[in-house]
Structures are given as C-alpha cells and as structure tokens.
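Quick one, T. Sequence first:
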Amino acid sequence: MPRPRKRGDAIAVMDFGGYSTRVFYQSTNPSSAPDSFVMEAPVGAVSQELAKSYTDGNLSSAAPENIAWVAVGSECRAVGYLASSQFNAHIGLTGLKYEDAVYKALAAIWVISCRLQLESKFSIELAVMLPPGELNDSQQFFELLSHALKSYETPTGCLKVKLGTRQAFQEGSGICAMHCQKLGEAFSKRAIAYMMVGYRNASVLISARGAVGKGKTSDLGMVRMTELVQERTSGYNAARLTAAIAKADFNNLSRRHLLPLTRARNLEQRQKEADQLIEAIKLARSDYAGMLTRWLTEVMPPDADELVFCGGTAEYLKPELRDYFSVYPQSWHGDIEVPQQLDCHGMGIRLADAYGAFCYFSSLFAEAVESQVPIEGKEVVSV
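Structure tokens:
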C-alpha cells in the first residue's frame, strides 16, 4: 500500500475549459470537506489601479471568484467575471491553454485562500487538466506558475504560495480513473476509447488492456459548430451564440431561445432573423456531427470493446454519436455522478472529468491510500 504524501495546506484540481474554469479543492485539515467553484474563462490585461478600484469596495459583498484579479510584477490581469463584465475581455480560443491558464490558476488559488481563510503564506498541492496535445507544455506551465506564486498581488494583498506536488492530467483522465475503479479487473482486459468533446477541443484517450497512453486532440469542440453557424449568418458573438445553442432544445428549437440574440428593432424582423438562425443551427449541427464522427472514427481503435463519451458537447450530440457508433458498447461520462453539494452551478456532467481527477489526486494525500491504477499524465514532485 503506497504511503500518503506530505500534504500542504490545500489540495486542488483545476480544469481550464474553453468556456469556464472548474475548480475542486479541499483543505488538508482532517475535518474539512471538498468544495468547488466555477469561474468564467476570459482573462484581460488591466492596470492594477483600475482593477483595485472595482474590488476594494466589494470584498465583503461579492464572491471572490467574481472580483478576481492578479498582478505579477508589472503585469496585471482581470480573470473571469470581472474580466468579461468590466473590461470587455473575451474567451481566448486561438492560443495554447497554458498561456492564460497561469493567470487563471493564480486567481483560483486566491479564491481558494479566501474560501478556506488561509494566511497570506501557505502551500498547495495542485493538479491541472490539459488537452493531450498540450500535455508536453505542462512543465513550462508549472515553472511559470511556481515562479509567480512566490509573490503576487491580489484584491486582498500579497500572497506567497509554495507549490508542492504538481501534476498535469490529460483531459478524460478523471473519467478514466473512475471508470477503472468501477470495472475492476475487467479494465485490464479491455480496449476502451474515452471520447471527450468540450467547448474548445475534442480528445480521445485510449486504454489498451489497462495501459493508458497519450491521447489525441483536435479543434472540433462546440466552438466549431458555432463557427459553422456564423458562416451562414453574420455578426453574432461566439460566446452568446454558443450559450444560446446549448440551452435550446434542439428537437424543439423555437424563436424564444434565439430572440435575445437578434439585432433588428422591428418585432417582425426579429422573428424572421430568429427563423434564419434556427435553420442555420440545424444545418451546422448536421455538418459538425459529420466532421466530429469522421475524426473520432479515424483515431479510435477499430477493435474497441467500449466507447465512453464525455463532456457537455458529447451530451449535446448524444443522438448522433449514439446512432453513428451503435455497433459498439457505449457508456456516458463513466456513469459519474457529481455530488449535488459540489455542483452549485448545475453544470452536471460537465464537471465529471474534473471531479474524477480530484477524487484520484486527493486520494494520494489521504492517511490511507488504496491501490489505484495511475492516471496517465506528467508529474513533478517538490522536495
């Protein structure tokens, strides 16, 4: 039985999704319970003086995740809701995830310190989730983060944080770990493809008779369908359009879901515009499902014993994916159920991967650690 690792003051897992950052965390105090929060994805440059002007009067009334900014040296960034609501920051989809993820991690660690009422100096054990195509960047991410954590400014003052154990998981690893526990010995006898489809990326992680290798990534996340809608229309904000598409019942698309996006002033013209959007969404969904299923077929093992679909976009396309891959045994989200008390935003299955990774990562620091199949990833352990 492995020995538990030396624990810092807090343990956290962060999933830097294209649409939001999902964080599970826990104090290492034996009486503490896990908790979670979600932050919007935007990160925007701002002067520290301007950022302080928005937060100084709101520290006692606003949740910390809604007023987060961080400053490292002369570089200051608003993160999440503050960035989008006050500084017109947008979701960044073209760069590498780890580039903005450093600021997102700094902000999330500040939020954790507020929620756990930690002192200005503390230590944290951290795991992050990255697309398989960016897993090799994890070393650089942790080097940048570790350096910044030594001293950085926040709305409540300077934090000095020691980064203890750090690990990067590829997307889908949390689902894989929990699914392994469920299958037991059968996990080592099957070829399983974990198909994670989120907002920005689509990734496939393959377990071949218990050996989990490096996955494959494409840019075929939900944003690709949004782009296909934009190509058939004009002038719609990608984030608002994606949110409206996701919330609408595709089998019963109606004007009421899309009227808030329309720009015409005349009601009749707005209704016509909504009808055009509905038609564009239907065509885009068909095209997008075809692109995605073709790519998944190319990268999955032809002799797969089971396909495990994960992510909010996979759930959105469940009818198409279920029918296209009907010859294979399927499961959805590893049958993970996130406890209701850890899902205050009602995100449901979109939290499953991060929650699974948190269950695995936090178990490494338990007083008694049961033997588990390791998650494929990259790790650096501090001394």
